[in-house]
Amino acid sequence: FVLSVTTALKSTRQFASTPVLSPPAPPTVENIVTLFGRDYDFVTPIAVTAQVVVVVLVGQLLFSVLAAYAFARLEFPGRDALFWVYLGTLMVPQAVTVIPLYLMMTEVGLRNTFWALVLPYVLGSPFAIFLLREHFRTIPQDLIDAARLDGAGTVGILRHVVVPVSR
Description:
By secondary structure, the protein is an all-alpha fold. Helices cover 69% and strands 0% of the residues.
């Protein structure tokens, strides 16, 4: 990171003539002005990146918490097998999924759209689900039973016991 910042603050001449690790003397913001000026319009890619990050973050938080709670506390047939199969997807390299994801997005008409960037990553991360599941399993069942006795449903238990939402 430091190398990137020092390089951005060097002029083209300094970059070509000085050692890589030398500090900029004098520092210049010419490269940054050029990058965000009319020539390159770098603001749009940053805005799109920020939108993707926000949508993926919110989606993964929501879906990962729900899936992890289901795997940790709800009883249903094949729960453990399904969890381990889902967790096994961590071993599949992302490079292997690029072409199938592209073909799927093309088939549903989402090629070259914002949602094609976001949808493959919104529905929860196996790693996040694994970590949250392990945390949810440490919450005492007595605490959840007490909340249920006090009239809390599944949503109330999620909001007030498992993932307390501050106000």
